[in-house]
Amino acid sequence: MRRQIFISLVLLGVVVLAVLQLTGGLTGPRPQNNGSQIRLTEFTPPNPAVVPGVGSLQTSLDFICREALEERWAVAAQEALRLENMWRNMQVKGPVLEIEESISRGIENLHLQILRRDIQGVLDTAEDLTAHFSQLRT
Questions:
Q1: Structural domain count, the chain
Q2: Is 123 contained in some domain?
Q3: pTM (2 decimals)?
Q4: Which long-range contacts (CB under 8 A, 24 or more apart) does 71-80 make?
Q5: Model pLDDT, residue 41
Q6: Least crowded by CB within 10 Å, which of 62, 64, 95, 96?
């Protein structure tokens, strides 16, 4: 009997708190707007689109390797898609360099190794991509 009374009191308290929250009873005092307060707003231009750097590509690749080692293939596949999108956003329009083609092929191979669920293949491909990423830094 005591247990039922306790549960009923707890539920009643939750209902009272919910009603107070919905009606604004828990929001605290509202500032008076009598025109004496001045609100300053600074307008700045929007930030330019942030292009990921080589470091973020390498971080993504490392994450894919960890997920492959733990055999979480769905997460690895998602991250591989994210890596591919980051790479596409980094590429500049114009003539394609040999290193860019190698990285694009490497990312395609990475997708294939993940689909095959080949841990060693993922690690080998990641090693090749890391070498290509280091060439981009120089």
A1: 1
A2: yes
A3: 0.60
A4: 71/117, 71/119, 73/114, 73/117, 76/114, 76/122, 77/111, 77/114, 77/115, 80/107, 80/110, 80/111, 80/114
A5: 60
A6: 95
